[in-house]
Amino acid sequence: MGPVHRPRHPAGLPQRTARRDGGDAAAGRTGVSSRLPVTRRGLLTGLAVGGVAAGVPASAQARSRPTAKTTGTATTGTATATTATALPLGVVLLDVTPTAYAAADPARSVVTVRARVRHRGTSALTGLTARLVAQRSPTVARTALDQWARASDRASITRSSASSDDVVVGSGGLSPGESADVLLTLPAASLGAGVGAHLAAVEVSDDSGRVGVARTFLVSAPQGDPTPLTLLLPLVAGRDGSPGGLARAVEDRLRALVAGSADPRVAWALDPALTAAVDSLRGGAQTAAATAGADADAATLTGWVAELTAAAAGRVVLGLPFGDPDLAALERTAVGSDLLGRAVRSAGGAFDALTGAVVRTDVAWPADEAADEDLLAFCVGGGATTVVLDDVCLPPSADLTFTPVGRASVDLRDTSVEALVADRTMSSVLADAADPDQVVLVRQRLIAEAATTASQRPSDPRGQLLVAPRSFAPAAEQLSALIADVESSGWASWQPLTDLLATPAPDVERSGPDVPAATARAALPTAHVVDVQEALVGVDDFATALPSGALGAGLLSQQRAALVLLGVSWRGHVAELPAARAGLARAVEALTAGVSVVTGSVRNLAAERSELPITVVNELDVPVQVDLVLRPRTARVQLDAVPRQTVAARSQSRVAVPVRALANGSVVVEAQLRTPAGSALGEPVEIRLNVRADVENWISGVVGGGAAGLLVLGLVRAFRKGRRRVDGAAHADVAPPPAPSEPAQAGDPAK
Predict the structure, then answer these.
(1) What is the pLDDT of residue 426?
(2) CA distances from 199 to 68, 133, 682 (A)
(3) What is the torsion angle, in degrees rounded to the nearest 10, for the CA atoms of residue 421, residue 404, residue 139 and residue 197?
């Protein structure tokens, strides 16, 4: 194993730039001097590029390797061609055949280059001709390849070059906006018997001189073992974790990546947000349009996951934490470990469908493949045993004449961690494959890099790792052709990531680990990480209101949305973070607003002791448990504590709260719903009461007095009625005797 050596330097003294692989170096890194002593490698490099005219700028000569521009979502490689030019014609390579020539093989004895010349200037050009020119001797150092790709448009090969015949471009002239294709041929025998990569260019000239150029490389057939290459492609969600955003990511780049990497030797780094979303796509649609959109997103994602599952068989998949979090940003905060653990747990089950793949969840992939000791320790604490770094983060501390294997073992304070060391040069070149105009240049450059690496030690193949940027978006057919063509050259062979992981770390001392200043500055702000943590705490508190295991789709969606806000893809988009957090806060508020208290009209309390009716509404699809807290603003009433309420899904519950009136008057009672964890659900509502505690006594008195009066009246009436009956009986006893009867009349029968 090759432990990483971290030399100490006196304060104030610059550290010597670490050189590597026959000419590559970490020059240009912050705080590192680019001065070097003259070495065998330096002499070889000088000889290799000695045929390039002095038109190469000093800055390009000083750069020994491409410096990638970090954008957070992509690493823009600048290794294949000069990005700025004053020449009026642009030249795009359409094809170079064969990928590796052989003078003795009739089928590969002629190099053919097809190119398209485009007029991007403002004035018509005439007398245009094109030619293919190449240096006869192959390069012996990888820095020569990079310097040639970055050379000035005016630079030329002036030493021992071979050239094709001049070919007229179009009809001999081009107007602004016009284009024409050219076909250039060069006998392989004219390139000599040297083995390796030759500097080459397609040059277009008019009567005044060069007006367009495209730099490339011609490579001979190999005579030794190929360089093993391992390719790691990112399948990450991006900044938009919504179903619609994930579906767009699939259409924009992820489907092409899966289709273009059909070779199972290509490894993937998979964000579980992509597969976990499939199970929750159809929830929450309220309108026909929303339902149609959800169905379309579901169809897109479900179909892609099926393609992913089928293509995963036999390959290595690195299972990332949910949302692909910015590990460097998390490490800087006190809550980082908790957030990383949450992201890891949220990924649980997301890879279960990849039954035919070798899923590794113990490999950490920090942004830009860069980490210092603290970040490595943080990754180890999160469960990682291996970390993906690059040779800018871990440069060889000695001046090497060869490229070492892309593996290392890094000693930490009380442990060690294995490292997969990506080749920054080839990774930066690969990034340009997303540009269709650069694909042929990328192919030729990668073959040239593999050829030069293999030529350093022909009998000692050394595996290299190529890592694509997280927003890598090439066309599927171009990616597939690139993978096939690089291997068909004979200079490279693709190997699975497991083979590279099984390769012992070489006995090469490396400096670092170190994070370039630009990469460190690009990390997400600490304040943002803390805000996301607070949002997650709020979601967690609301989760306590749900029955155990009944995590609603809406709540789960907000938890995942918060984790996506910590993703590496947000690097370079810091200005958009406040709006994203505000959107998350609104979504959480809308979720919690589903549980509320009905205010109703003013309640009247006319008794010293009574009950106050309060209605709690639950509009969610799951039952909730809430605490109802009542606080009167004045001391006119006293309310009893309310036991915890369980409200069924899509229903309401009426709560009768015992209340005691202490004084008359108007009272405002604040009603607040809280989760069992104590967090408030929405804003408190006001319930207004009119307290008239003496009304009951007054009514009782009136009723009692009336009853007493009625009783007295009844007694009096009953008494008087009884007297009248007694007086009537007495008068009957003392009635006068009846009057004497009159004499009987004649004829009266009684007589």
Answers:
(1) 98
(2) 22, 9, 68
(3) -60
